[in-house]
Amino acid sequence: MSHLLSIWVGWRFYLARQSNSFISFISFASTAGIALGVAVLIIVLSAMNGFERELEERLLGVVAHGELSGVNSPVHEWQKIAQDAKQIPGIAATAPFIRLQGLVQKPGGFQGLTVLGVDTQYEKNVSVISQFMTDEAWETLSKGDMNNIVLGKGLADTLAVEVGDALSLYMPDITASNSKRIGAAKSYRFRVTGIFELGGELDMTTAYVPMAYAASILNMGEGVSGVRIKVDEVFQSPRLIRELGYSQEQYLYLSDWTRTQGNLYQDIQLVRVVMYLVLALVIAVACFNIVSTLVMAVRDKQSEIAILLTMGMKRASIMMIFIVQGALNGMLGCLLGGVFGVLIADNLSKIAAAIEDVLGIKLLSADVYFIDFLPSELNFTDVAIVLTLALLMSLIATIYPAWKASKTQPAQALAGR
Asked: Which of 138, 306, 320, 332 sits CB 3.0–4.6 Å from 6 for a disulfide?
């Protein structure tokens, strides 16, 4: 019964703070600070979740989880590597590839380009690149004897080419007697049969051609540049690639996504941790305002506290009154921050796109980031953690003022009334 009385009196004290405008302002500031910190933290964590999702589903869906490539010569009998991979739990699929490096001419100079020769029969098992181009474009890559090429949208825009246009790729002439000279080069002409759009750096530097045609350019015969590998758990890639590579007799380069794209994941995690700490401190500062509010409320309610004590209320119940009063500030801040944070985080991509349209700017550039839009993925576990953290800090902030209120001496308080 005493606990219910403490809650009721705490609620009345919370409402009565409006009679003192200064205490009311400090109370409002603490609530607003908590709400702002909670909302921003939910939004930032959702954005980081979105970046992780895009990294795994978009970038790592196209970039190989791992590669085994020949050291000084093409990889022969790649089918044996594929058979060995099937014996290793955790490796989902393999696909051969041929890599070409060359230059394409653009206005004002040349653009470096990585051309991947792929076999669509196997490539679809290790990559989702087909989802980012039309079915017709993907079909053209299955025609091994054709000089078809599918470009990234960023590169196509830079080169000002469209589907149906011709494109020249300049590569070292490996058949010429003077191939060791820097100036030795040969031009290979392709027909643009499709454009894929990932919205990132790969759009600017990567193109796809039929693997058989790429093999004819390099005179590889049945050989390939290497084998692309997909694993079930992306963070197991380094271990699985080493296990497969060490079992081979041919000298091979071993590579996995953590070497080529791992810095992106590390950057995302670093930003997540830093923002978590910074915004947690913002919430902590807002909670200090709760301390200020309650200290002033205790001084303002000295006589009321003394009366309650003389009427027989226990000091623990007095302490509970002010804990309730401070907790109400924290709960209101958490509620407002949680609602606004969830609403904004759930629509963050649309809000960012609207801001870009209104201001005529690009928040994320594909030349710098692996995507050109602001992603978001709301995780209610993150929301629960943030709200729990904020509410816990709010409750901790009430302990000292509430304890101070419980130490009030009725005689002194009523004498100074």
From this structure: 320
Question: What global pTM score does this model have?
Answer: 0.71
Record the tokens describing residue 49, joined without a space: 């979740």
Q: 15 exposed, middle or buried (CB, 10 Å; 0-12, 13-18, 19+)?
A: exposed
**Gap between the Cα atoms of 116 and 215, Å rounded:** 11
Q: Judging by beta carbons within 10 Å of its beta carbon (0-12, 13-18, 19+), is residue 28 exposed, middle or buried?
A: middle
Rounded Cα distance between 237 and 230, Å, is 8
Instruction: Give the H or E element holding residue 14.
Output: helix 2-16
To the nearest 10 degrees (0 to 180), the angle between helices 348-359 and 315-346 is 60
So what's the pLDDT on residue 174? 60
Q: What does the pLDDT read at residue 210?
A: 92
Per-residue pLDDT reduced to its tens digit, 241-267: 999 988 888 888 998 888 877 777 777
Nearest to 363 by CA among 159, 199, 151, 206: 199
Measured between alpha carbons, how far is residue 105 from residues 99, 159, 207 in Å?
Answer: 19, 7, 14
Measured CA to CA, the distance from residue 76 to residue 93 in angstroms comes to 18
Q: What's the CA gap between 82 and 302, in Å, rounded? A: 80
Q: What is the pLDDT of residues 35-68, one digit of tens each?
A: 888 998 899 889 888 888 877 777 778 888 899 9
Complete DSSP assignment for 73-115: SPBP-HHHHHHHHHTSTTEEEEEEEEEEEEEEEETTEEEEEEE
Residue 45 CA, chain-centre distance (Å), reads 8
Which candidate, 209, 215, 265, places its Cα nearest to that of 237?
Answer: 265
Query: Which residue, chain included where needed, has tokens 């796109």?
Result: 353
Quick one: which H or E segment has residue 66? strand 66-70
DSSP summary character for residue 367: T
Helix boundaries (H) for 102-235: 120-126, 135-140, 153-159, 202-205, 211-218
Q: Which DSSP string do the residues of 261-314 spell out, in sequence order?
A: THHHHHHHHHHHHHHHHHHHHHHHHHHHHHHHHHHHHHHHTHHHHHHHHHTT--
* Crossing angle (nearest 10°) for helices 380-406 and 21-54: 150
Token couple for 176 = 């010429």
With CA atoms as reference, report the closest residue to 301 among 31, 5, 24, 17.
Answer: 17
